[in-house]
Amino acid sequence: MTLYYEITPKSPHKHLFSVKISVLNPNPLGQVFKLPNWIPGSYLIRDFAKNIVTISATSEGKEIPIHKLDKNNWIVSPSNTRIDVEYEFYAFDLSVRSAYLTNERAFFNGTSAFLVPLGFEDSECEVRVNMPNKDLVIGDWQCATTLKLKNQNSNFITYTAETYHDLIDHPVEIADFKIIEFYAHQIPHKMTLTGIKCDVTERLKSDLISICEHHIRFFGDPIPFDNYLFLTLVRNKGYGGLEHKKSTSLICSREDIPEMGMTLVSPEYTKFLALCSHEYFHAWWIKTIKPFNFHDFDYDQENYTEQLWIFEGFTSYYDEISLLRTKILTPEQYLSLFSQNITKLKRCNGRFKQSIAESSFDAWTKFYKQDENATNSIVSYYSKGALLAFLLDIEIRIATKDSKTLDDIVRYIWDNFRDDGLQNDSVKLAIEKLTSKDFTKFFNSYVYGVKELPLEGAFKYVGIECNFTHKKNDLSGFGISTKDENGLSLVSHVFDNSSAQNAGVYVGDTIVSVDNLKVSYGDLVSNVDSKSLGDTITLEVLRDGTNIAIEVEIIDTEKTFCTLTIVSMQDPKTNYRQNKWFYHHS
Known about the structure:
The longest helix has 18 residues, at 202-219. The strands form six sheets. The protein has an eight-stranded mixed sheet with strand order 5-4-8-2-1-12-15-14. Strands 23, 24, 25, 26, 27 and 28 form a six-stranded antiparallel sheet that branches. A five-stranded mixed sheet has the order 17-18-19-21-20, with helices on one face. It is α+β, with helices and mostly antiparallel strands. The chain folds into four domains: 2-175, Immunoglobulin-like; 177-264, Zincin-like (2-Layer Sandwich), CATH 3.30.2010.30; 289-459, Orthogonal Bundle (Neutral Protease, domain 2); 480-553, Pdz3 Domain. 27% of the residues lie in helices and 28% in strands. Helix 4 (267-281) packs across helix 5 and helix 5 runs antiparallel to helix 6 (331-346). The chain contains 16 helices and 29 strands.
């Protein structure tokens, strides 16, 4: 049986798509239709059904009753013939997760757009995408997706998908975009860029080829796709990505895209390349091989796993080191990036309270629902996961006298666990098999426990000096982060065991003066930074309309600012280890 869908960017100014789904052999007892509550890769219940504005059903041209069962399920009255369900949904979420429609761009994920009739989840799907009236939109719109093309003309394009699960894993971009086309390992790739006016540089194309070919060589056969698409929205400010099996949706800032003739790799461009690398790596590492319980998603509710530190953390390790291995970055540039991640983790006191396995499991309720106390109570499975991947890499090298690395573990898992997925202990068992060493203590301490990662020793093994200091011109040592509020500093976070927290500075306080001198948002850092340990300062804060004086003693806090430096050595063994860590990935 085949499901037939038709989707139209109906009203750009109202941000409304219209969708029609036709079911030829509905359940004669009443057909239930469902919309997912979340999208894989973004672990939060998002209730996409809330965006459906109108819905109706017909059979043989006559309207028939359709009733809502709960927030994302509808039932159509019994019918022995074809059922057509038509609905409109609101699309104004400028992210990679949902759907968006204006006169400049149409974008949707299937999880936001396509109801599925229960019992038809494994049916083939055919989707007709209607192009909008040219008078309603700006520019010459095209359509980009990795859905399988069936036919097309100037008015509509028809695609097919093997199942509903396949259908919702192919985001669709319709806009006046620029296109980069290239081959990596003889496989066609494209990148679309929506929102950019300048010409696309050859530098971007060249670097994408290097990254893609690196990842394909890294995993080897089989390659999990026969073509790949980077859908990229370029905005004034923006950042984000979401992985799919044959594509990824990206958002970047205009400053992230390299200018014509640019030879140096800017920090902004590096960030964008790392994002591309990260989402592309996911085509293997979570879209193909995945946690065992991710092989059969429940789109109604949370799908828990302890393994996000493996799939997001390992990916966060390889996304940047691949830029070094492809010579896009120098070792010094790479270490600068890596040190930023370490600094970010060291400033998170939640690392002493939540294990990385717990962080993975609680993503649905904690990581994706962060509040002002998050830095004190949780840890990121991205940032700590990347550092744990590095630490495992070094421990594996030590255990095997540099004959094995984390690369070997990842490829072993790729070769042996693609079909069934990973159990919670699969990575540990794979490491123990390839190293002939018991890693129980390691996992108990750093995966299931909250023991501090021994990074200094690990870096020393590969000839890197890891140091921590207090950063100048920074309020983290004082214990707060702030944002500009009408020229004054509004406290957005207060860190555990800091000068500010001990004195009773609260989130939501607006700092008016320091020692009776008015301070603007731009001057607060220098005023606080000029004080010495043991000094007491008076902060005047505005709290709920009342001015309050708070005496704050400047106390010593943990040194969190990380620097990584290549050590000049005569030891050939350490030099060998360093070069192998930087570049070896055979």
